[in-house]
Amino acid sequence: MKLNYYQDTDSLYIDFSSRPSAESREISEGVVLDYDAEGNLVGIDIDNAGKKLDLKELVLNHLPVKISTLSA
Fold it and tell me: What is the C-alpha to C-alpha distance for residues 60 and 50, in angstroms, rounded to an integer?
């Protein structure tokens, strides 16, 4: 899973899979779910993320994964 924040557009994309999106559904204003060809959720796009989410803190609890930090 990857979290990609684009400051110039204030959008956050949560990438659950490397599979391409085949269908998108807006579930509320500025929140779009992306699905692959089999109907599996592959990502969430959130417009105006800074107004909808607290982007100053990210807390991960009990995830059985290696944490990687990438900086631009």
Answer: 19
Residues constituting the chain:
72
Distance CA 47, CA 6 (A): 10
Global pTM value: 0.82
Q: Tens place of pLDDT for every residue, the chain, 72 residues? A: 899 999 999 999 999 999 999 999 999 999 999 999 999 999 999 999 999 999 888 887 877 777 677 665
Q: Would you list the domain boundaries of the chain?
A: 2-52
Residues 4 and 12: beta-carbon distance below 8 Å: yes
